[in-house]
Amino acid sequence: MTVIVRDLRPEVRADAEGFSHVRRLAIPFMLSTPKSVLHNLTHSHPDAHFTQLVAEEDGEIIGTAQVGLAHDSPEPGQGNANIYIRPDRTRRGAGTLLVRTAEERLATLGARKIYTWVLDEPANRAFAERHGYRASRSAYFLRLDLANGTLPPLQDPPPGVELRTGADFADDPRPLFELDAEVTSDEPGDIETEFTDYEAWLEETWRHPLLDLDLTTVAVVDGRPAAFTAAYTDGAGRYGTAMTGTARAHRGRGLAKLAKNASLHRARAAGYTEAFTGNDTGNAPMIAVNKWFGYEVCATEVRHVRELG
Question: Which domains are seen in the chain, by residue range?
Fold first, then answer.
């Protein structure tokens, strides 16, 4: 049996379906659909040089890679290559071929560092170390049983605060872009990020097929978004939090918790049965908030980095 690596073909429906299927098997805590796979490929910023690779064995997709440059970082030369193999198709050489191809692509684009997320399991970490990657920060995946769990009771917003949905900003989402940019810049991480391109944000984030504007919830103070939780849904009973945060001037008031609680209650009422989110392991305040909702850690990823010679 021969394993080959090639680019995902957006015009071939089976490619996007196979890519999404591998992602759901390998990392079920992250929402993925064929539509989201194609959106990521066709709507990423040109400066990211984003590529999706597949490892194929006898016509079956058994591994995937998402490869690109961190174009929105003020430090140039930083690349990302996240690789996942079907759990029942390991030890066939697919991972090594994907790593090698991704590194070659990024090197030709001028990358000096390559970052990758690796599940915190002995075999996965050993694989990364064999290929020259060293461990960095870590992050949790958390799961909430929406069908059987008990959410905190809904609370009325405090005076001067109004809860709205993302759909309420459909005519002018720029205020949400500005809030997202501020919150993202304060997120803990290895790569500093600066959102400055509104049109790119519209393409990549606001029009993402997983983004559920009716469940996305915004706390508004004096007519301006002050906190929000962005909701992803896959149409198959799964809800994910893409981002939750508060503007610096309004932190410490519980506004993000208020928005997320409202979103989770509406998600459960809409029939969603599982909720997922992720937190950097050093983000104690947000971890505490999610545990207050009833989320439990279901897996850990470790960021690894390799510096190219």
Answer: 3-111 (3.40.630.30), 144-299 (3.40.630.30)
